[in-house]
Design brief:
This protein has ten helices and no strands. By secondary structure, the protein is an all-alpha fold. The radius of gyration is 23 Å and the shape is globular.
Length: about 270
């Protein structure tokens, strides 16, 4: 029998050329279909949770294993990130990456960028009521804020490349480390959303609290800094002094970067939708 995919002669159960499994007509049965479906789901679950457990419990080990060739037991970096991002897209209610329109026209530092005037000009140009425009804006920023999170991966890959330039790692290695780093950040947002964010807003009945947002930002910066230190120490395998310095810098700048991301989303929705 020849391989149904590439035509290579088959002597084993799997094609040595393309890896296609030898076709058996008995596989076209309901029983085999059900078995194959559940096997695929279980295999996916095992890989996903093993990848997640390694990401959280052993910072940096996931990236290190991948670049050293240990990959069969893990999900691929981008595949894992897409799954986490998909869960983040559908399950997260309090989203640190986006804010409703009210915040942009009420609180600092946003009003320092003349957001009130910009929004009013847009409302006048679209001939919508304030309420209608606010509803459209809030729906759009909720979707866009999660959709464009992937941009943080090349951004941090470039940052890590610049920080660890002297350590002679190629750009792909930094991309892998950045992918896992951003995936961890999303996992942290899952945790703080369900354990801190939702309970706070549920019991206070507030739509937004600037003080709470600041506290969460400081806490997030600390968590990100510590995780980065541990992960970078294991992945780049360098001394602690430089790791601590760069970790503090990454943690300190994390929330300001999110603020810039929020403003970029604001301008995108206002001018380009």
């Amino acid at each position: 029998m020849n391989c149904k995919t590439c035509g290579h002669p088959l002597e084993e159960n799997y094609c040595p050329s393309c890896g296609e499994k030898k076709f058996d007509p008995e596989e076209l049965s309901v029983k085999h279909f059900v078995e194959e479906t559940f096997e695929g789901m279980i295999h996916f679950d095992n890989k996903f949770f093993h990848t997640l457990r390694t990401l959280v419990a052993k910072p940096g080990q996931l990236s290190l294993d991948y670049v050293q060739g240990k990959r069969a037991v893990y999900m691929k970096p981008v595949q894992f990130f897409l799954v986490v991002n998909l869960l983040f897209f559908f399950l997260i209610l309090y989203n640190l990456y986006s804010l409703p329109l009210y915040n942009y026209i009420t609180y600092k530092p946003f009003i320092g960028y003349h957001t009130r005037e910009i929004v009013q000009q847009k409302i006048n140009a679209t001939h919508l009521t304030t309420g209608e425009f606010e509803q459209l804006f809030n729906e759009k920023i909720q979707a866009d804020s999660k959709e464009y999170i992937f941009l943080f991966i090349p951004f941090y890959a470039f940052v890590f490349w610049a920080i660890f330039f002297a350590y002679k790692k190629n750009l792909v290695e930094h991309l892998i480390f950045a992918t896992h780093f951003v995936a961890f950040v999303l996992c942290w947002f899952f945790l703080q959303n369900f354990l801190i964010g939702i309970p706070f807003y549920f019991f206070t009945h507030d739509n937004y609290s600037q003080i709470f947002d600041t506290i969460i930002s400081i806490l997030t910066g600390a968590v990100v800094a510590v995780y980065f230190m541990l992960a970078a120490r294991r992945f780049y395998q360098k001394g602690w002094w430089w790791i601590v310095v760069t970790g503090l810098a990454v943690g300190y700048t994390f929330f300001p970067i999110i603020q810039y991301y929020r403003m970029l989303l604001f301008y995108k929705i206002i001018y380009w939708r």
